[in-house]
Amino acid sequence: MKRRSPLLRISFLQIFFLLFLPFPVFSFELSGNVSLQTRLFPDSPADPRQEHNDLSWAGEIELYHEFASGSSLTVTPFLRLDSADNERTHGDLREAKYLYLAESWELVLGVGKVFWGATEFVHLVDIINQTDLVESLDGEEKLGQPMIHFSALRDWGAMDAFVLPWFRERTFAGANGRLRPSFLIDVDQARYESGAEQTHLDLALRYSQSFGDADVGLYHFIGTGREPTLIPAVEGSELVLIPYYEQIQQTGLDIQMVAGNWLWKAEALYRSGQGRPFAATTFGFEYTFYSIADSQLDLGVLGEYVFDDRAAEFASPYNNDIMVGLRLALNDAESTELLMGLIKDVELSTWFYSLEAARRLGENWKLTLDALFFVDVEQADPAYGMRYDDMLKVEIAWYF
Q1: How many whole angstroms separate alpha carbon 376 and alpha carbon 181?
Q2: Mean per-residue pLDDT, 91-107
Q3: On the chain, which terminus has fewer CB atoms closer than 10 Å, C or N?
Q4: What whole-number distance in Å separates Cα of residue 284 and Cα of residue 265?
Q5: pLDDT at 27
Q6: Is the separation of the CB atoms in 202 and 167 below 8 Å?
Q7: 238-to-20, 178, 335, 363 alpha-carbon distances in Å
Q8: pLDDT in tens, 152-176
């Protein structure tokens, strides 16, 4: 029997959070954005089922209410409608949370978003929220995560404890979508190591503290791994990949330190339960030249390295890679910013080039341009299926 879609299943849980949290109707502050986006691919796709280009509309609304005590209620729904890929047409409740604020501790109940990490290109230690991969390949777009989040701040540091009662499956591009592996990932056939499947109770505990100019975070996570193993299977006459979510334990560390114009960054993890135990790390720097030639321009130079000792055993695009980049901020009234990046695989011939540019247009509009280029992608590289997916993404958004 075909499984009910992940979107439908999570909607039931999110509706539960909205209906049964004991709050009367409040007056909310309303903000959000509506955007129109096109992704243009100059080359024909590797799979003839894939559409050449796509056009999509997206909207995100934030409803916020703050109580007299300082506690607050936030609800943030998101929706995208895509012309080419049914899997990219999706909705999500990014947040639906009540924050209870006390003098030295706070409690979050509902659906929330939490980010951990320090580096620019790869976020190894970020594990609480599931990646919304149809939104972006950089791993920065996340699905809302049902949670109970307790945080306490003391002189010796901050402690965060998480109880995560519902698991979110990762999103992947469908048969008609671009930027996907050579073989289709069948999300409807996802499997779990735990018999509890999506209802497995995940736990996490994190300690963070500032030591002089350094910010340090250390955590341990026990539960369903957010990064699935992709298992080959045959459906009809087609070879597909089935996501398999194992039970893992992961310890993560992130460090960020400011030293004059230098910003040093590092992340590391150790994971067991997903094949053999392994370690991974990424570290690097950002050096900023401020007020270049007595102008308003700031230029940041970035360099990072990532290593994952699973190497070819696991389909990770980043297992031994060098990343360099430039970040330009014009510091003008339009908040114009530009980020250029290059990623080179140390062992393979594969190169990736990226460009991100953003500029405000007036008070309420924003124009964003993103470009991604693949060069000499070897067949052994997990990105081989995207070798023809050089892309220019143009988005115009209205904020209110």
Answers
A1: 16
A2: 96
A3: N
A4: 5
A5: 80
A6: yes
A7: 44, 18, 48, 50
A8: 999 999 999 999 999 999 999 999 9
Rounded CA separation 101/145 (Å): 20
Residue that the structure tokens 């409690």 belong to: 107
Domain borders along the chain are 6-399
User: Is 3's pLDDT higher than 70?
Assistant: no
For 114-127, the pLDDT digits (tens) are 999 999 999 999 99
Amino acid at 39: R
**Percent of the chain at pLDDT above 70?**
92
Hey, what are 338's tokens? 């530009």
3-class SS of residue 292: helix
What share of the chain in percent tops pLDDT 90?
86
Tell me the C-alpha distance between 106 and 329, whole Å: 35
How distant, in Å, are the alpha carbons of 303, 318, 347 from that of 307?
A: 14, 7, 11
- pLDDT over 80 (residue 257): yes
Question: Over the range 160-194, which residues count as b (16 or more CB within 10 Å of their CB) and which as e?
Answer: bebebebbbbbbbbbbbbbbbbeebbbbebbebbb
Looking at the DSSP bridge assignments, the partners of residue 207 are 159, 218
DSSP state of 346: S
> Among candidates 296, 363, 307, which has minimal Cα distance to 331?
296
pLDDT at 272: 97
Element (H, E) at 239: strand 238-245
Q: What is the largest CA-CA distance in the chain?
A: 67
Q: Which residues contact 273 (CB under 8 A, 6 or more apart)?
A: 225, 246, 247, 248, 249
pTM: 0.91
Report how far residue 386's alpha carbon sits from residue 178's, in angstroms, rounded to the nearest whole number. 8
Burial class (CB in 10 A: 0-12, 13-18, 19+), 112: buried
In this structure, the number of other CB atoms found within 10 A of the CB of residue 243 comes to 20
Q: What does each C-alpha distance from 23 to 97, 102, 198 come to in angstroms?
A: 11, 18, 27
Distance from CA of residue 74 to its chain's centroid? 20
Which pLDDT does position 191 carry in this prediction?
Answer: 97
Give the residue from 250, 252, 290 showing the smallest Cα distance to 268: 252
Choices 3.20.20.80, 2.40.160.10, 3.40.50.150, 3.40.50.920: CATH for 6-399: 2.40.160.10
Quick one: which H or E segment has residue 56? strand 54-66
- The partner residues of 370 in beta bridges, in order of sequence, read 356, 393
pLDDT tops 70 at residue 19: no
